[in-house]
Amino acid sequence: VAARPRRARREARAMTRAGDDDVDARDSAREETTSAGRAPSRVLVVGGGRVGAYLARAFRRGEVERVALKTSNRAARAGDETREAARAIASDAGAIVMSTYDGLTTEEERHFDFIFIAVKTYALEAVKRELSEAGITFDNVVLAHNGIVAPMFDENKSTRAVMPQSWDIVETPGVGCGYDIHVKNEDKPWVMPNTAGGRATRALLQKCGVLSDATDEFEYLLLRKYFINGVANLLAIVGDCNCDGLLQHHRETMETLYDEMLEILRVPHADGFALAPENFRDVVFAGLATYRDHFPSTKLDFDAGAKLEIDSLNGYVVQRAKEQGLPCAAHERLIE
């Protein structure tokens, strides 16, 4: 992969810029407003899982006036306590929790400054349809998910976020609401593109204590996270192990997956690869190592009996390979 001069220093700068108080102060003054010229006061979080609960709690702790968490209206699966825990965490923080939009009866109640969509990629079309049918309007929509999918919201209002964290909901009997969220890599920023929407998202997240950055290197950082997910998430199901176990016992398979991804995605994602360092492979596996004993979200979904994200993860590589007439045996075996 070609590297630009001083690439390593620029990557470090991009990933730590969120901690620069002077930059935050200047950018917040410019970006921390809605199209109506005021600070965001109404935020909707769609997705009643670990990320949704984390965001709803963060926004309330950041004193966003009205925060709503929209959970699924489908019956919970037996043995899956994630939704119950997410509702408890969000409610305890002061967020409104709802499973339908029926309670939003006025045009004002149906409008949000920001919508953060934190659902599995296979649910995005259903979420968009539900928002439209309920008459929900918004100034900004932020897509917080793994994998790569085609844009489906107005690109003038839509921002993609890359999250380096992992979240685990744990029980805390007798303490608070009975649940808490443990976050790995919380010292690393969420990353958005350096656009008006990306900068506005950064300002809101920063205000609410979530490290974040809007950077010209977004396409590279998206690839970096995608490669980590691509070599690990589905393979964790096959290997029945966490990230440490993958590195200890399945490194050769992951290397093969990496090689296929590199060859297949090189042209479709040329902009991102142009920003990647020469040691991109090392960067990917070092990134995976930071998750330590965490089980990838796809493995947790599998264990809970939930539908799996495939098309936006390794399935995306298979589709791109077919379009270019390239071999993709390792990924094809993985998604079978």
Structure, briefly:
With 336 residues, this protein is of the alpha/beta class.
* Strand neighbour order, sheet with most strands: 3-2-1-4-5-6
The CATH superfamily of the largest domain turns out to be NAD(P)-binding Rossmann-like Domain
The strand count comes to 10
Strand portion, in percent?
15-25%
Q: Sheet with the most strands?
A: 6 strands, parallel
Global structural class: alpha/beta
CATH first level of the largest domain: which class? Answer: Alpha Beta
Q: Mean pLDDT across all residues, rounded?
A: 89
Number of H/I helices: 14
Approximate shape: globular
Span between termini: 30 Å
Radius of gyration equals 20 Å
- Counting structural domains, the number is 2
- Here the CATH topology of the largest domain equals Rossmann fold
Describe the structure.
The protein has 2 domains: 197 residues, NAD(P)-binding Rossmann-like Domain (Rossmann fold), CATH 3.40.50.720; 117 residues, N-(1-d-carboxylethyl)-l-norvaline Dehydrogenase, domain 2 (Orthogonal Bundle). Helices cover 45% and strands 15% of the residues. It contains 14 helices and 10 strands. β4, α5 and β5 form a beta-alpha-beta unit. The longest helix is centred in the last third of the chain and has 22 residues. It is globular.
Topology:
Blueprint: H1 7-16, H2 21-31, E1 42-46, H3 50-61, E2 66-70, H4 82-93, E3 96-98, E4 111-117, H5 124-133, E5 137-144, E6 158-161, E7 166-171, E8 179-184, E9 190-193, H6 196-207, E10 212-215, H7 218-239, H8 243-249, H9 251-265, H10 270-273, H11 280-289, H12 297-303, H13 314-324, H14 329-335
Parallel strand pairs: 1-2, 1-4, 2-3, 4-5, 5-6, 9-10
Antiparallel strand pairs: 7-8
